[in-house]
Amino acid sequence: MMMTYPKDVVVEEQGLRDGLQSEKTIVPTEKKLELIKAVVEAGVKRVQVASFVHPKLIPQMADAEEVCKRLPQVNGVLFSGFVLNTKGIERAAKAGLTHVAASISASDTHSRKNANASREEAEKRFAEMVKVGKEHGLTIRSGLQCVFGCRFEGKIDSKVVLDMVKKQLDLGIDEVALADSTGMANPRSIQEISTKAVELAGDRHVFLHLHDTEGKGLANVLAALAVGITHFDTAFGGMGGCPFIKGASGNISTEDLVFMLRQMGIETGIDVGRLSAVSRSLEDFFGKRFSGKMHRVMERDDIKIVY
Amino acid sequence: MMMTYPKDVVVEEQGLRDGLQSEKTIVPTEKKLELIKAVVEAGVKRVQVASFVHPKLIPQMADAEEVCKRLPQVNGVLFSGFVLNTKGIERAAKAGLTHVAASISASDTHSRKNANASREEAEKRFAEMVKVGKEHGLTIRSGLQCVFGCRFEGKIDSKVVLDMVKKQLDLGIDEVALADSTGMANPRSIQEISTKAVELAGDRHVFLHLHDTEGKGLANVLAALAVGITHFDTAFGGMGGCPFIKGASGNISTEDLVFMLRQMGIETGIDVGRLSAVSRSLEDFFGKRFSGKMHRVMERDDIKIVY
pLDDT per residue over B76-87, tens digit each? Predict the structure, then answer.
């Protein structure tokens, strides 16, 4: 059966947060601001710029306030901050953000190890986060981690996931993100869960946050497009790494996604060439190669590249 | 729309040919035979074991005859040899193979540069190859290169491609392979061309030979499955490299494909763990890392891997 696809897709660039946070070499604030400017100039309309977690936990994100206070003012561009608790929400609001991504895990074990709380406790904290966020006038995206599998628990019951999504929607969140934190999703599980999440969410957007750890990143995107998902998180160059799989790759690459979509006639508004230059400059900065493909292809001027 | 998928998929392992041929370090015949034994024991039912091209062109394949003469005899396993001309066909037959993959390019420029013949001349040679192959009682798969794009010409007219497929079928070939030699295919072009090729081929199998150069390998597989393609070429570890894009990755990884399919409930008969061990042993041999993902994931014994 031939598949049908949407005409437009929204991409949220998470390289500044999910990409950089796994790197030990601290990127200066000035450099981060340059990167943010460059991705916005490449046409990205949503950028996750920082994580408001404890600086001791992730030193790379210690300048979150400074970054947010110096963000460029561009019409139509939404900057997002990643938060794990009410403290993070308050910091994000104070730093001038209008939107946060509030994270919680669908895996009880992952929640206990990562957030030091059972899933049930984490859900109570999440409700508190939403309350505080709304008091500050923020729009809130929920970020549900380990939706498609957990490296500690294995498979996560989809009923648990969808029950959590429903409760989050009932709390009044503005958007939902289903995260395949470990890259364990496959096209079939993507379609099963996304279809039901989209039904629950109604006119609120459902994002997919995919990792390419097992190589299925863009196949999962394709499966998601076929069931009506039009919002995806990515990272330039395919940056980022799952802390549970050394040497494994990170998020799906922004350039790879945007290029595939453009070839398929699906518009994102993002310039692959300009974004590829951002990725390559970061590779130079870190002195290493990222796992994405298109930023590598785009540096060749001796071959035909067909959109 | 939810997609429907086949129950079984046939995988042809091409690591021994398309993988090794791009490596400068010569793999001893003994080691190649060990690899062939290992992939067969991992459940692979079709293996392309050698290329009958001039040894000066590809020194790695200079032992093609020796490899073929010493192949293990296993019921239900088909060994294939890659050929570019009638000389190659005769060598393959003499070495005891019963099946060959006869290659020709859909790109005129690529044909001139690679096979030293215009596309039209190459088609005449191809007809001669089929004639000679049949005289030797061989079954023949055509391998049509650059179907989805050429790094010299850019896009290739799908009418040219389908016309070539039709002519090859009329010559009496047994199977067709559409090769995305440069990794330029996208899910939409895969579906458009594959659908028509399957119609033309009737009860003869249409293989897709995909490269992951632009990161779309498994997305293209998914698109192909949805239009009824059930035969794919792969290489262990994602070995191989397009000669026109340095540093770019090679074939889609056998392990990545098999693992995704198994997660989706589609059987190949191949053991991902055993094949991953083959890839890692080859990485040790060459002292480098291949671009596939699952052979890396499978070496971890401290994380849950969910099928």
Answer: 999 999 999 999
Rounded CA-CA distance A273/A271 in Å is 6
Residue of B nearest to A226 (CA): B1
CATH number at residue A135: 3.20.20.70
Give the model confidence (pLDDT) of A111-131 as tens digits.
Answer: 999 889 999 999 999 999 999
Q: Is residue B164 part of a domain?
A: yes
Instruction: State the pLDDT at residue B299.
Output: 93
Residues A248-295: pLDDT tens digits?
569 999 999 999 999 999 999 999 999 999 999 999 999 999 999 999
- Verify whether the Cβ–Cβ distance B3 to A187 is below 8 Å: yes
Which pLDDT band holds residue B245 (cuts at 50, 70, 90)?
A: low
Which of A155, A222, A303 is closest, CB to CB, to B222? A222
* Max intra-chain CA distance, chain B: 56
Nearest CA in chain B to A304: B151
B5 contacts in A (CB within 8 Å)?
188
Domains identified in chain B, total number: 1
CB spacing of A219 vs B214 below 8 angstroms: no
> Which residues of A are identified as catalytic?
242
CA-based nearest distance B71→chain A, Å: 32
Whether B270 is in a domain gets the answer: yes
- Which of B153, B219, B306 is closest, CB to CB, to A218? B219
**Is B111 inside a domain boundary?**
yes
CA distance B242 to chain A (A): 11
The distance of B226 to chain A (nearest Cα, Å) reads 5
A305, part of any domain:
no
Domain that holds residue A231: 10-297
B193, B227 Cβ separation under 8 angstroms:
no
ipTM here? 0.96
Chain B residues close to A3, C-beta within 8 Å: 1, 3, 187, 191, 223, 226
